[in-house]
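Checklist before submission:
- one chain only
- standard amino acids only
- sequence pasted in full

Submission:
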Amino acid sequence: MTQINTNWILAFFGALVALELVKSSQSNEYMKREHSLVRPFQGVGVILPHWDFLGSTMVTSNYIRLTPDLQSKSGALWNYSPVMGRNWEVHVGFKVHGKGNELFGDGFAIWYTKDRMQTGPVFGSKDYFSGLAIILDTYSNHNGPHNHQHPYLSAMVNNGTWSYDHDRDGTHTQLAGCEVRFRNVDYETFISIRYENDVLSVSTDLENRNEWKNCFVVNNVELPTGYYFGLSATTGDLSDNHDIHSFKFFDIDTTITHEEIMRRTNIIPNAKTFEPPREHKDDPKPGMSNAKIFFILLFVVLVTAGVAIFAISYFKDRNARKRFY
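Returned file contents:
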């Protein structure tokens, strides 16, 4: 009886192991290595397989730092293989952290664009881009009627003719967005970007719970095949470490034909539905800063003191002359 039970237990665990091996095999086929980054990173500091990097980007075995926590830094990381699948999903593991507790910036962006390896003012990459930008903005540039809390996650689809409005945090061109909290936590944070049958879905795992939380879903988003993935970050007067821990690309196409893939290379990026545009209002003119007020008052005091000293000296000299007559 004991032998039978032992055989049954061994058979049961053997079946579990076989099932896990099958899952692992399917998972490896599902994830495309040529578009992915998985630790430990090879070619530390010099060459990164399937990816190029520029600017202040630093590659270590455990993370890729797009910018250090220093002012006026910019870095980027670009995959050099075009994506030839219509439907895909991307999981990005990252950490944004730095010394600043109240003031920090500026954030980073995940790109799916026609052009690659081009620097510019939009989180370290070019403006007037063609494709998709997923933006994780940590600093609020705008405090007017369309302000939201930061950090803020948003999406923008561009056909190459629109400029990202940095002064207003892109609120006039975004598809959708949500407030997020991912900065200065002790664990790795994640974002999921899924594009399937012209539906763009973005979710996050920012609380170390190993579960996705929906940020937004946008229908009728048309993106071409043949574009490139990239990541970029920038700092200005404020700064942060922007670290990428993983980038996993999953091909979720099932029956798409080669003809369909090639046809979609000619699509112009567009979105038929988007967040209702907010009224464009100019920012109120900023008042004088405390420093400016201080220097103005100091100038007035010095001028007044100078006039007073001149007047006292003048009248003393005049009175002294009268005594000689």
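Reviewer check: The CA atoms of residues 151 and 181 lie 6 Å apart.
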